[in-house]
UniProtKB/TrEMBL annotation, chain A:
It holds the Pfam family Cyt_bd_oxida_I. Keywords: Cell membrane, Electron transport, Heme, Iron, Membrane, Metal-binding, Transmembrane, Transmembrane helix, Transport. This is Cytochrome ubiquinol oxidase subunit I. InterPro entries: Cyt-d_ubiquinol_oxidase_su_1 (IPR002585). It comes from Salinithrix halophila. It is found in: Cell membrane. Belongs to the cytochrome ubiquinol oxidase subunit 1 family. Its main location: membrane. It is a multi-pass membrane protein. The chain crosses the membrane at residues 15-39, 59-80, 86-115, 122-142, 180-200, 220-241, 318-344, 356-378, 404-426.
TrEMBL record, chain B:
Keywords: Cell membrane, Membrane, Oxidoreductase, Transmembrane, Transmembrane helix. InterPro entries: Cyt-d_oxidase_su2. Belongs to the cytochrome ubiquinol oxidase subunit 2 family. This is Cytochrome d ubiquinol oxidase subunit II. The lineage of its organism: Bacteria, Bacillati, Bacillota, Bacilli, Bacillales. Its EC number is 1.10.3.-.
Length: 454, 338
């Protein structure tokens, strides 16, 4: 691998790793918040137990989210110093403000985890709220930076290429920011919810003997499927908007995502298939006539630009077509699945859910995490060869320092180690606090109110 | 005041805050290792109790420092990234292992032993790597031809090791002084005496190593040494603050021997004065001789928007910090927990 490829692989894997924990750090606090609300509505105390157990899981995940985020932030400067010069000159604001969001989350997470027993109920709810707010805010802010890389705005270039007339707020609110920020948020809420569904379905398969446990997990399942279903619907609608923003602002990315070579009106939507660069054709795809034009601009006669209109050396890599298809497929599948599971629950009433359905539902968590990964790699790789769209090539942004391969190997090993350790700690932790004991304590009224989360 | 000076003052403030918080945090890890492994030792337990809730917040200060540097001095990033890839990446790996274990050990006690060793050793290694930035930006260790770090020269130079020694001595000194005060607050006289003893031998040592560091600066950093001797007034004031604080360990108070709160406060003042003087001596260079502040500063409109964001951010966060301080550094129920 040359140094540029190594730098890209190293950075891509660091982000790919961080994003798992970061997305859950946005999605889980939202679920915790929802179950607190569910408790307020139903007065069923099992929802507070859910909130409590999810908080513990979230506290463990944070132990990886924070250091991996620190890695990403520092590597951004270490690996792409010339991109960071752009950042500093134009899009500094979200990076800076994000730190305040981190402080908010870090402060209140410590308070919530280590001091829960000394807080008044109001302060406790407020702490969770601030944790959730901090997570969501940091996602929106970092997305602003990423959106700016896709649709740079808020400055002018002087004749000598230097940056002048910087308008920080305009850079922050760049053209793709609104759709992207909303998409990242709702997809994170959706992922947090489906991860909960996946685990609940798994527990229902394993723990069928105990009626109380089964009911507890079914409640968690139905709650999370509701949130996940609604959020995946929102994700799809909002993804449609994101696609239209691509049509306007990054036509070659949309063309690559759809495998479209010829510019045309009444463009078909291509599902699957593999792009053949030599022949300039998409092979083996199922085409839905006129659909792409309609998706891109709400009109069947809209002209969608094909790749042949762009210089060959600015074409994004072709696997982004597959990534995009997979993301959309997962999104659509999960909407259907959540709807179907609700229908079954409604039809069957109190009778147990069919085992095959539970098996299928265990995949919702992993699938939505995969969709997140596909989506991010799509937006970053689909921007290639640019780091800043039409302004700075990735090859111009990379550091001149050599020897990156060693670091790549070291960091990958570190991520593997952390992934294994996280799973292990989760299991050890929840094994020490079995659900049946906590449930029994809850119902005998000895629920240790105000116990610190230790 | 020019934008560049205002910006570097803000960065200086974060460097300073991270130096103090980091010293206390990493130092507590080290003391936790030394004492935590003996059963029933209050000193170790105390150090670890302080560590549990605070490392996250300390970590944000590190990120804050990096981000602030990038946003205010974007053109410094290219040269710094090149020079600091090695120490920077090492710090990241160590920091990740440390932070993850910190949380894991809290959730799965079986990690307790591993944590105490890891947080102890990384508690020495991370500050050592971080302090390497100082000799690097002072000149002589960056290859003028391609801008890369002269690793061989860096690790064979005497001045590098004096910086290292200074970094470690001040880390351990500050954390001992802090923990002495913290144990007094927790009404744990036994732990107090342990940390007081360490502060007493580490204090003069730190001062001594600091002086040796300045004296042994190489020819490339001659400009810095010259500036430092011009600012010797500040360093004298710093030494005075130290002597005052040091004497407080022998004051007789109602709560026993010594006044650790006064001592620690004076030591902070000592570090404020000394690092201010070091910072002023470093002007006008960010990286000698490649980059001055004036060349590095970002454009005025971004600069202004950043200042506004600081004002708003601080207004929101100050109450949070206050609550945090009340709960973990002041609340007897937390301090005295078994
Ligand atoms: C659970 C995850 C998930 C799911 C099910 C979907 N997405 Fe998505 N998508 C993301 C998670 C995501 C993401 C990871 O959050 C991205 C990456 C960058 C971004 O802004 O959001 C993204 C990016 C992204 C982009 C690129 C934006 C850009 O590069 O500027 C488009 C056009 C879509 N999505 C469209 C869709 C459509 C039409 C979907 C139909 C269901 C869909 N997404 C489902
Ligand atoms: C869409 C992508 C991302 C999302 C949703 C996201 C979200 C999060 C969340 C929720 C946390 C935990 C915050 C805390 O508790 O303090 C976190 C940590 C962090 N993230 Fe990300 N992040 C993303 C990408 C990035 C990128 C690209 C960077 C670097 C530029 C970054 C830098 C960080 C840092 C530095 C931390 C640690 C903060 C600390 O020290 O507490 N993140 N991120
Ligand atoms: C969080 C999930 C993300 C993932 C999984 C991800 C993934 C990737 C991948 C795979 C690459 C290499 C692209 C290639 O070489 O084909 C890349 C590049 C990059 N990404 Fe992202 N990315 C994420 C979010 C972000 C965000 C939020 C930012 C900015 C704030 C960002 C900034 C960059 C930069 C600067 C590069 C290097 C230059 C480039 O290749 O364009 N990424 N990312």
């Amino acid at each position: 691998m040359d140094e540029l490829t190594t730098a890209r692989s190293l950075f891509g894997s660091s982000l790919g790793f961080h994003i798992i924990f970061a997305t859950l750090g946005v999605g889980l606090p939202f679920m915790i918040f929802v179950s607190e609300i569910a408790y307020q509505i139903t007065k069923d105390r099992e929802y507070t137990l859910m909130a409590k157990r999810w908080t513990k899981a979230q506290a463990i995940l944070l132990g990886v989210a924070i250091p991996s985020g620190t890695i990403v932030a520092v590597q951004m400067s270490l690996l792409w110093p010339k991109f960071m010069e752009w950042v500093g000159q134009v899009i500094a604001l979200p990076f800076q403000v994000e730190l305040f969001a981190f402080f908010l989350e870090a402060l209140f997470m410590s308070i919530y985890v280590y001091a829960a027993d000394r807080l008044s109920p109001l302060l406790r709810v407020l702490s969770v709220f601030f944790v959730a707010l901090g997570g969501s805010a940091s996602a929106v802010l970092i997305t602003s930076a990423n959106a700016w890389m896709n649709t740079p705005a808020g400055f002018d270039l002087a004749a000598d290429g230097s940056v002048i007339n910087v308008r920080p707020l305009e850079a922050f609110l760049n053209p793709s920011f609104p759709s992207a920020a909303l998409h990242v948020l709702v997809s994170a809420y959706m992922t947090g919810a489906f991860v909960v569904s996946g685990i609940a379905a798994w527990r229902m398969l394993k723990g069928k003997q105990d009626e109380a446990l089964y009911r507890y997990h079914r409640k968690a399942l139905m709650l999370s499927l509701t949130v996940g279903g609604l959020m995946s619907l929102a994700t799809a609608f909002n993804g449609h908007w994101a696609g239209q923003v691509l049509h306007e602002n990054q036509p070659e990315k949309l063309a690559a995502a759809e495998g479209l070579f010829e510019t045309q009106a009444y463009a078909p939507l291509a599902l699957g298939g593999i792009a053949d660069l030599e022949e300039g054709k998409l092979k083996g795809a199922i085409e839905i006539p006129w659909m792409l034009s309609f998706l891109a601009d709400n009109r069947f006669d809209a002209v969608v630009k094909g790749l042949n209109d762009f210089p060959r050396d600015t074409w994004p890599p072709f696997y982004v077509h597959t990534l995009f298809n997979l993301m959309v497929a997962i999104g659509s599948l999960l909407i259907l699945l959540a709807g179907f599971a609700w229908m079954v629950r409604w039809k069957r009433g109190k009778a147990p859910m069919p085992r095959w359905l539970l098996w299928v539902l265990t995949t919702t968590g992993p699938l939505s995490v995969l969709a997140i990964e596909f989506g991010w790699v799509f937006t970053c790789s689909g921007r290639q060869p640019w780091t800043v769209y039409h302004l700075q090539r990735t090859a111009e942004a990379v550091t001149d320092a050599g020897g990156l391969l060693t670091w790549f190997v070291l960091f990958i090993s570190l991520y593997l180690l952390l992934a294994v350790a996280t799973v292990w700690v989760m299991r050890a932790y929840f094994r020490r606090r079995p659900l049946n004991e906590e449930l029994a304590a809850l119902h005998s009224g000895k629920g240790r109110e105000g116990e610190s989360l230790g | 005041m020019s934008n560049a000076i205002l910006a570097i003052s803000i960065i200086w403030m974060f460097v300073f805050m991270y130096a103090i918080l980091g010293s206390v945090d990493f130092g507590a890890g080290f003391w936790g290792m030394v004492y935590g492994r003996l059963k029933d030792n209050r000193a170790g337990a105390l150090a670890n109790r302080f560590l549990s809730p605070t490392w996250e917040v300390t970590n944000v200060f590190l990120v804050m420092l990096v981000v602030t540097l990038v946003v205010f001095f974007p053109s410094a990033v290219t040269s710094l990234a090149l020079a600091l890839l090695l120490p920077g990446s090492l710090v990241l790996i160590l920091l990740t292992i440390r932070s993850a274990l910190m949380v894991f050990a809290y959730s799965a006690p079986r990690f307790q032993n591993a944590l105490s060793i890891v947080s102890g050793t990384t508690g020495l290694l991370i500050p050592a790597l971080l302090v390497l930035v100082l000799p690097v930006v002072a000149g002589g260790f960056i290859d003028p031809a391609d801008g890369r770090l002269l690793t061989g020269k860096l690790f064979s130079s005497r001045v590098t090791y004096t910086y290292l020694a200074f970094g470690l001595a001040s880390e351990l000194f500050l954390s001992a002084a802090f923990l002495a005060d913290y144990s007094r607050e927790a009404e744990d006289e036994e732990a107090y005496l342990v940390f007081r003893r360490h502060a007493i031998w580490l204090g003069p040592l730190t001062l001594l190593v600091g002086m040796v560091t300045v004296l042994s600066m190489g020819p490339e950093a001659g400009w810095l040494r010259a500036n430092i001797s011009e600012n010797s007034g500040w360093f004298l004031a710093s030494a005075t603050a130290f002597l005052f604080g040091y004497s407080a360990y022998w004051w007789k108070t109602k709560r026993g021997q010594g006044a650790p709160r006064i001592a620690f406060t004076a030591f902070i003042l000592q570090f404020v004065l000394a690092s201010y003087a070091y910072g002023v001596s470093h002007l006008p260079y960010m990286i000698y001789p490649a980059l001055t502040l004036q060349e590095g500063i970002t454009n005025p409109s971004i600069f202004r928007s950043l200042l506004i964001s600081y004002a708003i951010g601080l207004a929101i966060l100050v109450p949070g910090f206050y609550l945090f301080w009340r709960l973990f550094l002041k609340d007897k129920r937390y301090l005295n927990r078994g």
